[in-house]
């Protein structure tokens, strides 16, 4: 078995193959020098300086030996030959496979404007990126974050905690435009402003000005310069689909897979950020999360061994900013009603989203128990009314039996 | 650095050296202790690193934060008086030699 990509998803495929009883050789190929590591802390504890890099490793070296997972770090794959069932490495070596998993991840989306290449303009995706941003934060006074998504907001929080002057420039008319509801976005705009961050919405970036090769300011469409000695660009990621496309696998904003992480080729599965999932209802789902990498990794390993293990659990996700823990479960995109449990003023509440009286998602702010119960409610398709969701006297756990 | 003995639900023991400042979860997961998942990587967001610490340690450890306390109410296996989320317990020399028991299920 060969796995291309040694992030959380790729490692999960390897581990799950062993857990499912596969005893043959496993090769895990990663471009980065580091062994598989946890990415979520990069924008949180690593920037804050409260976590050592060694703590990021998902598994230690002994684990790979014991599980007989051959880890090829710092290794690039050049192409996949599906008819010969071979992976060709950039150094010319060829590896045959019986089953192949693509876990190639994604890369930071670049800004299509001038000045993108200046020193001091950074994106955040890898450990190297985080090292660069952390080093820059130690010298910077003024930070401009381009993009009000989760990465941008978490970097802003880390920079603000260090006492730096921070501006968030978001082109849309609200934060978190691609991933959260307007209600939650407004909460986060208030949160960051209350912490002293300048949050500018509808701020379209048109250029980056430099001095001696270093960034000095970000220019917005209204002509204003926003002085900066560090610019962090967080405008999304682009799935790494070149290998899949190169060997003729179907891609549509990601390597297309079904609920069992299968591609169109029975010998090839794909997992994590590089994928787009065609669900049983026909919609295209792109999830960029740890849960997605792990669950698809488990499904993929099963699929490579000829077993069906669909990933159908409700998507969940979290973000830590300042002392606010957000946990999201479900997909809120087409909700028609919001019900609150708890108090937004106290920054301790859950927003329950309903569509035609059916629960579709819950955003929990510093209410972790609501989130945990909410995952069960959604996974079991439990019946819960908006009135019950709002009733603090009713324990949510009492509703977690399956619906009829 | 502390030597920590993890005992799986089925009785399997594994002794792990964990550096000071790391969490019990980090030490256990890096060494491949099977009974701890730690899916969220240690941000107290998933309750899949539940463990039972030495009874004698319960009052010695800093108490759970409000978040940990709430998450402990949502563990897959029974919560006991010595239940902790291992991602929230930091290792110090004082923990050298402790025994941590793992629950039957994490998720």
Structural class of chain A: alpha/beta
What would you call the shape of chain B?
A: globular
For this structure, the quaternary state is: heterodimer
The most extensive contact between chains is: A-B, 29 and 21 residues
Order of helices and strands of chain B: EEHEHEE
**Average pLDDT rating of chain B:** 94
The N- and C-terminal alpha carbons of chain B lie at a distance of: 30 Å
**Tally of extended strands of chain B?**
5
What is the first-to-last residue Cα distance of chain A?
42 Å
Give the C-alpha Rg of chain A.
Answer: 22 Å
Q: Report the sheet with the most strands of chain A, covering strand number, pairing sense and barrel closure.
A: 5 strands, parallel
Shape of chain A: globular
What percent of the residues of chain A sit in helical stretches (DSSP H or I)?
10-25%
Q: Which class best fits the helix and strand makeup of chain B?
A: alpha+beta
Widest sheet, order of strands of chain A: 3-2-1-7-19
What does it look like?
- The complex is a heterodimer of chains A (404) and B (107).
- Chain A is built from 10 helices and 26 strands.
- Chain A has helices at residues 8-19, 45-48, 61-66, 127-139, 150-161, 182-194, 242-246, 290-304, 368-379, 386-390; strands at 2-4, 26-29, 69-72, 77-81, 86-89, 94-96, 100-102, 106-108, 121-123, 142-146, 165-170, 198-201, 205-211, 214-220, 225-227, 230-233, 237-239, 255-257, 268-270, 275-278, 284-285, 316-321, 324-330, 337-343, 348-355, 358-365.
- In chain A, the strands form 7 sheets. Chain A has a 5-stranded parallel sheet.
- The radius of gyration of chain A is 22 Å and the shape is globular.
- The model of chain A has no long low-confidence stretch (mean pLDDT 96).
- Chain B contains 2 helices and 5 strands.
- In chain B, strands 2-1-5-3-4 form a 5-stranded mixed sheet.
- The chains are: A alpha/beta (404), B alpha+beta (107).
- The A-B interface holds A 38, 40-41, 44, 52, 54-55, 57-60, 62-63, 66-67, 290-291, 294, 318, 320, 325, 327, 366-369, 371-373 and B 19, 21-22, 26, 29-32, 39-45, 47, 67, 70-71, 73-74.
């Amino acid at each position: 078995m060969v796995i291309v990509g040694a992030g959380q998803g790729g490692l999960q495929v390897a581990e799950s193959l062993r857990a499912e009883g596969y005893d043959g050789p496993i090769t895990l190929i990663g471009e980065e020098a580091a062994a598989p590591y946890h990415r979520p802390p990069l924008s949180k504890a690593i920037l804050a300086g409260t976590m050592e890099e060694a703590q990021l490793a998902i598994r230690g070296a002994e684990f790979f030996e014991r599980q007989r997972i051959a880890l090829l770090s710092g290794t690039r794959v050049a192409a996949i030959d599906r008819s010969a069932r071979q992976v060709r490495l950039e150094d010319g070596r060829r590896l045959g496979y019986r089953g192949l998993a693509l876990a190639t991840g994604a890369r930071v989306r670049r800004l299509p404007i001038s000045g993108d290449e200046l020193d001091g303009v950074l994106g955040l995706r890898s450990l190297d990126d985080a090292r660069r941003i952390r080093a820059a934060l130690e010298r910077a006074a003024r930070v401009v974050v381009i993009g009000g998504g989760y990465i941008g907001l978490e970097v802003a929080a880390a920079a603000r905690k260090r006492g730096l002057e921070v501006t968030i420039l978001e082109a849309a008319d609200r934060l978190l435009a691609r991933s959260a509801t307007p209600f939650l976005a407004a909460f986060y705009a208030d949160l960051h402003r209350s912490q002293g961050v300048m949050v500018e919405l509808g701020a379209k970036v048109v250029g980056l000005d430099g001095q001696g090769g270093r960034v000095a300011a970000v220019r917005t469409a209204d002509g204003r310069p926003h002085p900066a000695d560090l610019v962090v660009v967080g405008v999304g990621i682009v799935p790494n689909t070149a290998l899949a496309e190169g060997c003729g696998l179907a891609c549509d904003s990601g390597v297309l897979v079904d609920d069992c992480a299968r591609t169109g080729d029975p010998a090839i599965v794909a997992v994590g950020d590089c994928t787009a999932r065609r669900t049983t209802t026909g919609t295209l789902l792109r999830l960029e999360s740890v849960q997605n990498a792990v669950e698809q990794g488990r499904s993929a390993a099963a699929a490579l061994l000829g077993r069906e293990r669909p990933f159908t659990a409700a998507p969940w996700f979290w973000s830590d900013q300042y002392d606010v823990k957000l946990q999201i479960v479900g997909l809120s995109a087409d909700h028609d009603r919001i019900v609150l449990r708890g108090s937004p003023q106290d920054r301790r509440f859950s927003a329950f989203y309903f569509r035609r009286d059916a629960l579709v998602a819950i955003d929990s702010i510093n209410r972790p128990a609501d989130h945990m119960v909410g995952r069960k409610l959604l996974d079991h398709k439990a019946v819960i009314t908006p009135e019950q969701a709002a009733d603090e006297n009713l324990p949510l756990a009492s509703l977690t039996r399956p619906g009829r | 650095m502390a030597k920590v003995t993890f005992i799986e639900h089925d009785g399997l023991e594994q002794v792990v050296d964990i550096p000071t400042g790391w969490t019990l979860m980090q030490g256990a997961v890096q060494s491949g202790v099977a009974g701890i998942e730690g899916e969220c990587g240690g941000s107290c967001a998933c309750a899949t690193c539940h463990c039972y610490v030495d009874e004698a340690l319960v009052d010695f450890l800093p108490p759970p934060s409000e978040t940990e306390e709430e998450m402990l109410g949502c563990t897959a296996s029974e919560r006991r008086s010595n239940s902790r989320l291992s991602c929230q317990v930091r290792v110090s020399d004082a923990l050298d030699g402790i025994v941590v028991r793992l629950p039957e299920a994490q998720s």
